[in-house]
TrEMBL record:
One of its GO terms (molecular function) is DNA binding. InterPro entries: HTH_MarR-typ (IPR000835), WH-like_DNA-bd_sf (IPR036388), WH_DNA-bd_sf (IPR036390). It comes from the Bacteria. This is Transcriptional regulator, MarR family.
Length: 145
């Protein structure tokens, strides 16, 4: 089924516009909440992904988080400059860069679960449990999972 046509398409009424606006709202609120940790919401995603073992290379992080490799490199440079992430070449394949959290990176990542849920729960406060589950279901369907 085609939901949009050239006649009925309006940018501000599109799903893409709403998703982008929602993403930007959450990212902005998360950035404010993470300020004391001196990290941003994209950096939070990287730290948590490494901490949980969801990704251990820049390429895996790029795929998981939907961030292009150029931006990923810049984000990792900043995290490395802050002493939160270390890069090392794989002994098996020198083309592969492995990522690990430093001791300070582990400490910062361990604090995120105390902060992020508050931000998300504030944005979701008007949703019932059923609406929240339906939102998650629909977003997963939209992204193809």
């Amino acid at each position: 089924m085609e939901h949009y046509t050239p006649k009925n398409f309006l940018l501000t009424d599109s799903v893409g516009f709403a998703l982008t606006k929602a993403r930007n709202l959450v990212a902005s609120e998360m950035d404010v909440a993470l300020k004391d940790l001196d990290i941003t919401s994209p950096q939070m995603g990287i730290l948590l992904s490494i901490r949980l073992g969801n990704a251990t290379t820049p390429f895996e992080l790029s795929k998981l988080l939907g961030i292009d490799t150029g931006l990923m490199t810049r984000l990792l440079d900043k995290l490395e400059d802050k002493g939160l992430v270390e890069r090392s070449r794989s002994v098996d394949d020198r083309r592969v860069v492995n990522l690990t959290l430093t001791k300070e990176g582990q400490a910062i990542a361990a604090q995120i679960p105390q902060i992020a849920p508050k931000v998300l729960n504030a944005r979701l406060r008007k949703f019932t449990k059923a609406e929240f589950e339906e939102l998650r279901r629909l977003l997963n369907k939209f992204i193809g999972e």
